[in-house]
Amino acid sequence: MSSVAKKKPLLWDYLTTVDHKKIAILYLIAGGFFFLVGGMEALFIRIQLIKPDNTFLVGDAYNQVLTMHGTTMIFLAAMPMIFAFFNAVVPLQIGARDVAFPFLNSLGFWLFFVGGVFLNLSWFLGGAPDAGWTSYATLALHSKSHGVDFYLLGLQISGIGTLAGGINFLATIINMRAPGLTYMRMPLFTWTVFVTSALILFAFPALTIGLALLMFDRLFGTAFFDASLGGNSMIFEHLFWIFGHPEVYILVLPAFGIFSDIIPAFSKKRLFGYSSMVFATVLIGFLGFMVWAHHMFTDGLGAVANAIFAVATMAIAVPTGVKIFNWLLTMWGGQIRFTTPMLWSVAFIPSFVLGGVTGIMNAAAPADYQFHDSYFVVAHFHYVIVGGVVFGLFAGAHYWWPKMFGKILNETLGKITFFLFFIGFHLTFFIQHFLGLMGMPRRYFTYLPGQGLDTGNMISSIGAMFMGLATIVMLINVVYTAIKGKKAAGDAWGVGRTLEWSIPSPAPEYNFAQIPYVRGLDALWVEKMEGDGKMTPAEPLGDIHMPNSSILPFVMSVGLFIAAFGAMYNDQLKNHTAVGVLILGLFITFGSMFLRSWIDDHGFHIHKEDIADEGVEA
Amino acid sequence: MNQKFTAETFPHNPEKATEEGKNKFLAFWLFLGGETVLFASLFGTFLALRNSTAGGASAAEMFEPKLVFIATMLLLTSSLTSVYAMYHMKNFEHKKMMLWLGITVLLGLGFLLLEIYEFRHYMHEYHFTIKSSAFGSSFYTLVGTHGAHVFVGLLWITTLMLRNGGRGLNLYNAPKFYIASLYWHFIDVVWIFIFTVVYLMGMVG
Amino acid sequence: MKHWRLVSLISLIAVILSACGHANQSTLNPQGEVAKMQYDLMKLSTLIMVFVVAVVTVLFLYVIVKYRHRKGQENIIPKQVEGNHFLELLWTIIPVILLIILAVPTVSQTFKLSDEKQISKDEKKKDAIVINVNAHLFWWEFEYPKQKFITSQDMYIPVGKKVILNLKGQDIKHSFWVPSLAGKIDTNVEGENKMWLSADKVGTYNGFCAEFCGPSHSLMQFKVKVVSQADYDKWLADMKNQKGQAVTADAQEGEKIFKQSCIGCHAADANDTRPPAARLAPNLANFGDRDMVAGIAKNNEANIKKWLTNPEAMKPGNLMTGKYGDLSADQIDALTAYLTSLKIAK
User: Fold this and answer.
1) Between B24 and A615, residue with greater pLDDT
2) pLDDT by residue (tens digit) across C200-211?
């Protein structure tokens, strides 16, 4: 760390930081925390379903837990942990000192966090949302408590944060690559972040509108989804899924990117078919917007619509299959080292393929008339989300932990986590395919005895315990490593191919003492093979311009948090206290925006004398 | 940041002459892409619900061509005046830029006031409110969201003018003026769609 | 590790084969033409997908075994292969072909099952069997429009004949699913959906709500009773005569209570001509014949009494809770006697 950085108290440092590396840690901690919350919710669900007619968690209470499990895992656990890696890795991989908009980066985090806290406060304030993570309009309008309002407002706030993050990374990747780093020399993880950010930019506004219209109906008495006044609840479904389908690609593409970096590294081979992989990523992103109504096959849209969306959905299998084969061929002829990140990456391949093929089965619309809203679909999406995204997050965490924290996570504990989780995952979800085929609908809090569903559910519940255990072991690993872990080198694993491994672990405050010059794909590997293993600087050593930290992003987010309470209880503008709270919150937020615009902020400089003479390590 | 410019030394594209300016320029276009999807969703909802009047008055009965035409002219002209302002900015003519920005704001304000009058007219004459039917909800939400964007734009440009009135043009504030004017053009383009889809299609039936 | 996967895979397949599911409820044991068509498509897609999984698995296992890092290789750098155009084409074109093989029957079957115009045409035929399905929180109503009567919870259809359903949600969105006979279709509030199905064998088949609808979504189950044509014709005729009149003395006592406390929502006369929006509760005209109470508990005296005493405990969030005040044990006994007497005369 540069000696110039004024020593701030830790809490204040993290509350005001605009440094992408610290923001990455914030995302990781928050996302990790919510992963635990969502995991507890999953365990409660599986405990309830371990036997028929169980009374552990029933009726509306069960519905709240299942809604929060899905909502928390997708919006508050998976997405933030993905953003943790965007932040920790992308600026380093492109040879930049930070993202394009550090202040906005911080704002994105705090908005996400505040939205997540607001949503979870519902547990203590009258009940969590109970209309499913999809919150379809007729059910959501029918729900009596404020739970759904917490959902609508909380996700709206978090969503703005995510959108800001998407724009930030697009601008960063387009404008701030180091000299010589053309698009086709970018690491594949950065490519997937690029495409994912574009998906975020175009998908989240549809969600924004869907949530807003439902909120208007619930809180202000409008008639968008009220059939008696001419409304139509299918509009919500369209808006939700126009967001919702790209959302699952937002989740999985970064995981693909993580595997595309790890597999070459631990096979000692370059990524096979790099240009095909780039093209496949872009194609998956694009096609992801063309298929949303496959979630609505049973709505009665008609044969033409169903047929079109069925065929479009099947098309996505092609670029995805291309990726699978390219990963396998990357390992072909290599020297595979089964470190923990590599174990997760390797296990991902067959696991994700199983999920992908059931996706194609769901795409066959008439077959989907049987699969839809049954445990077959639950099995499918857990296979792709857990087998794809969660495996990717575990892999990325292990792989980049030294770059973020300066230490490698303990390999033995890592392998124990892996095996427990892998076994638990397949135990839990494989049998669910058959539960669905045997007539068990989803979102059921119980099933009747004598319907043939007992054994499968019990097996599934036991599997969940394994995953819970695995997570505990991972937590132990994190603590153990913090206390006893060995310091890691810049090229922590010794196999680094990309730029982040050319600087110390953890990265210094300014990332690169001198912006490097990139000579080819796998920039560091090129130097190892053809040079001296060190990056050539693209600029002389000089003063480094850094952005100032600021408390305003935190304050702006808190303002919206306060405003959300006012909005929720406003009772169509009749509750004057609530309206006052709403105005106060908005005043805090817009006031902060005004201050940010009015007060000049030109950052500060780290002087060249103070830059630690570490050079750029190989 | 403290660099002093003259009309000769000021870059041709001051809004893109710094790294910060380039980033802001790009990011704002990206943001407008997202806003396009936002408005497209509102348009889609409106198109689906525009005939769901729940027994109340329809668009053909309520909308008045004259009012809508004047509003459109005000907003379109304000877009033109913002172009003039940017032209002067690139020529380092600070005072003229401020003049045309001021006219832009006045025209935009006129548009907003007219729109408020229009909404009140519907509510009093026809009891056509955001709650009276699905058509009402989608009309006021779409047109109202646009109006809110106009309002934000006016605040934005006014704040920029107040803050930078006394300190002339430089490479720090030029990008700020530029993206505010981009935003203003975007709102104008959205209005053209509203004019066509909501008012013209509504009046023709 | 690799062995573990193979062993578990094989044992799971054994489990699969032994548990194809009950014939009255499983999509893997189709009992009607539509479910059979869907099962055929499921089998085709499974076959193609198993092939894909097999190819990937074989390649995968080979790679991770053969190219494992071995001691002494530390200083050897493997050949850095950029790619292979031929392979890229191969693993693009073959999946496309496989998808076309799946897409053609998919599109064809979609039109066979979901062409609303065609179903409407079929509905207008003279001998068409038409049932209007109304989904409620948390029960099912079946209206026989040609015969002009209403029933609930148990839907009777004749064996081997095409039945056309018009489906609507009366309060919020639900979904009608009888897995062994046909795939599901949503019951929307905004408009009617149409589907058709038929059953090959006489029997009782389980039906479920398949669109998340609230606290008792899991408990909104119903039955499809497939009977012979002769039995069906007789049932239709008998239902017209189900007017809910009590015959025995016990039942008459219960009928009095029913007319005070229940008639606001429930009808006991199958010939209920009120509009759908006014029919707030299941029609009970043939309640005594039904398999289940409230769709989920065996229809016997104990369960009827349990339901009447505390409906909320059996079906959280149901709309009968709190609607009829407290009933004494005697009143409940009388009502039970009345309700069990509501049967088709033998």
Assistant:
1) B24
2) 999 999 999 999
Contacts of B128 in chain A (CB under 8 A): none
**Quick one: C237 and C104 in the same domain?**
yes
- Tell which of C182, C215, C241 closes a domain: C241
- CA A357 to CA A368: how far, in whole Å? 13
Position C74 scores a pLDDT of 85
Per DSSP bridges, beta strands C193-197 and A604-606 are unpaired
Q: Which residues numbered 52-91 in C keep a CB inside 8 Å of some CB on A?
A: 52-53, 56-57, 59-60, 63-64, 67-70, 73, 76-84, 87-88, 91
Contacts with B23 from chain A: Cβ below 8 Å: 100-101, 171, 175-176
State yes or no: pLDDT of C4 exceeds 70: no
Q: What residues 12-51 of chain C have any CB closer than 8 A to a CB of chain A?
A: 12, 15-16, 19-22, 25-28, 35, 37-38, 41-42, 45-46, 48-49
Number of domains in chain C: 2
A residues 367..396 contacting B (CB < 8 A): none
Q: Are residues C215 and C147 in the same domain?
A: yes
Residue C226 belongs to a domain with what CATH number? 2.60.40.420
CA distances from residue B38 to A112, A149, A204, B31, B50 in whole angstroms, order as listed: 20, 21, 9, 11, 18
Q: Mean pLDDT across chain C, nearest whole number?
A: 93
Q: Which domain holds residue C219?
A: 24-57+83-241
For Cα atoms A434, A436, A441, give the angle at the middle one, nearest 5 degrees.
Answer: 155
The neighbours of chain C, by the rule of 3 or more Cβ pairs under 8 Å, are A
| C97 and C189 assigned to the same domain | yes
A210, A231, A242 ranked by CB distance to B134: nearest:
A231
Tell me the nearest-neighbour CA distance from A590 into chain C, angstroms: 39
Report how far residue C110's alpha carbon sits from residue B126's, in angstroms, rounded to the nearest whole number: 46
Kindly state whether residues C237 and C264 are assigned to the same domain. no
For chain C, say whether A537 makes contact (Cβ under 8 Å): no
Burial of A27 (0-12, 13-18, 19+ CB in 10 A): buried
Specify whether the CB–CB gap between B184 and B65 falls below 8 A: no
- pLDDT at position A617 is 38
Give every residue of chain A whose pLDDT is below 70, as ranges: 1-6, 613-618
pLDDT band at C16 (very low <50, low <70, confident <90, very high): low
What ipTM, to 2 d.p.?
0.96
Q: Write the residue in C8, C22, C217 that is nearest to A452 by C-beta.
A: C22
| Element (DSSP H or E) covering residue C222 | strand C222-227
Query: In chain B, which residues touch A (CB < 8 A)?
Result: 1, 19, 22-23, 26-27, 30-31, 33-35, 37-38, 41-42, 44-45, 48-49, 51-54, 130-138, 141, 159-160, 163, 172, 176
What is residue A3's predicted lDDT score, i.e. its pLDDT?
42
- Nearest by CB to residue A446, choosing from C4, C49, C218, is C218
Quick one: C166 and C274 in the same domain?
Answer: no
Instruction: Give me the residues paired with residue C222 across strands.
Output: C207
CB neighbours of B192 closer than 8 A, spacing ≥ 6?
A: none
What does the pLDDT read at residue A615?
46
pLDDT band at B128 (very low <50, low <70, confident <90, very high): very high
Counting as contact any 3 or more CB pairs under 8 A, the partners of B are A
Nearest by CB: C46 against A302, A361, A430: A361
Does residue C337 lie in a domain region?
Answer: yes
pTM, rounded to two decimals:
0.96
Number of helices and strands (H, E) in chain A? 21, 4
Mean pLDDT confidence for C298-305: 96
CB contact under 8 A, C83 and A331: no
pLDDT band at B85 (very low <50, low <70, confident <90, very high): very high
Is there a single domain that holds both residue C330 and residue C216? no
Do C169 and C214 belong to one domain? yes
**Residue B168: phi, psi to the nearest 5?**
65, -175
